[in-house]
Structures are given as structure tokens and as C-alpha cells.
Write a structure and sequence with these properties.
By secondary structure, the chain is of the alpha+beta class. The protein has a domain of about 120 residues: Nuclear Transport Factor 2, Chain: A, CATH 3.10.450. It is built from four helices and six strands, in the order ααββαββββα. Strands 2-1-6-5-4-3 form a six-stranded mixed sheet. β5 and β6 form a beta hairpin. The chain is globular. The termini are far apart. The relative contact order is 0.12. The N terminus is likely disordered.
Length: about 180
């Protein structure tokens, strides 16, 4: 009977070790997948910029979630995906896109690995230095952009002058609209 108990005990220990090993392997695979996630997010963002530069509207808009919002540099530019697609389609149909070169990027992940957010500095021929920020979600195993926000950073030294210019523009626009 003692030998039977030892075998049973040994089997129990082996099962526990095997379960622990399998669990650790699962954690390692999960950690490896999360380690790749920032690279996957960067790849989505790189594809976003390259498809815009090539005026590839199909690829460009496939990177967004169906509920995505695009916020542009103008205060009036807050577009649903459908509205943004309508705005961009005529440009893309003519083979005209927009080119932004990434000069710096930071990507962050939620603890569960299903949400990513980023900030990136971009260079554009017309607008100079710009900043993109946004959020991506894991949807059916793919990263999708749920929000993208493009801004033009204003140096603090000239911020008050820029604000004055914006206010003057808004006042002039308001006067025209009130006529």
C-alpha cells in the first residue's frame, strides 16, 4: 500500500508541475504577444501614413474601427469615419493623398493588452511639424484605430500671437456669417 501511495503522490506532484509548467508557458506566450503589440500598433500607424501618401483609400480606411473618429487641425474638424471617408474620397480618387513623415513616436498598452494609445511627431511639407495622437483597440485579433487627432503644436513663445490671429479670424468669419 505504501508504494501505491507514493506513486499516487508522485503522480500528483508531476501533474501539479506539469500544470504549473503549462501555465507558465501560457504566461510567456501572452507576454510575448504583448511585447509584439507595440510593434503591431506601429505597423498599423506606418501603414496609415504610407497608404495616405499613396492615396490608397481602401487600405487607409480599413485601418479604422467602424466607430472611429478623426479630429483634424481645424476646430470644426471632428469626423465620424463615414464623414471623413466622404471628405477624403475625392482626393484619393484623384490620386492625391497627404504625406506625413514620422519623426518620433511613443506607444502605450493597457494592462490587458487590448487598448493602445500613442503620440507621434510628424513632418509635413505644408504644415511643418505636426502631432498625431490616438487610440487603437484590438478587434477580432487586429488593431483598429478608434480615434486619431492631428494637431499643429504651437511654440509657447508665439502662442498668444496665434490665439490673437485665431480670434480675429473667428470674428471676421462671424461677421460674414451674420450678414
Amino acid at each position: 500500500m505504501k508504494s501505491m501511495r507514493r506513486i499516487t503522490k508522485g503522480s500528483s506532484v508531476k501533474r501539479r508541475l506539469k500544470s504549473a509548467f503549462i501555465g507558465m508557458c501560457g504566461l510567456c506566450v501572452s507576454a510575448m504577444a504583448m511585447a509584439d503589440s507595440p510593434k503591431e500598433v506601429e505597423q498599423v500607424l506606418d501603414t496609415l501614413h504610407s497608404s495616405a501618401a499613396k492615396a490608397d483609400g481602401h487600405l487607409y480606411f480599413s485601418l479604422f474601427s467602424k466607430d472611429a473618429v478623426f479630429i483634424g487641425t481645424d476646430a470644426s474638424e471632428r469626423w465620424s469615419l463615414a464623414a471623413f471617408r466622404s471628405f477624403a474620397k475625392p482626393w484619393f480618387d484623384q490620386g492625391k493623398g497627404w504625406t506625413y513623415h514620422v519623426t518620433q513616436r511613443h506607444v502605450y498598452l493597457s494592462s490587458d493588452g487590448n487598448v493602445a494609445w500613442f503620440d507621434e511627431m510628424l513632418s509635413n511639407q505644408s504644415y511643418g511639424q505636426t502631432r498625431g495622437t490616438g487610440v487603437l483597440l484590438q478587434e477580432q485579433g487586429q488593431w483598429k484605430i478608434i480615434q486619431y487627432h492631428l494637431t499643429i503644436p504651437v511654440p509657447n513663445e508665439i502662442a498668444k500671437d496665434v490665439v490673437k490671429s485665431i480670434r480675429a479670424h473667428q470674428q471676421k468669419k462671424s461677421q460674414v456669417n451674420n450678414k
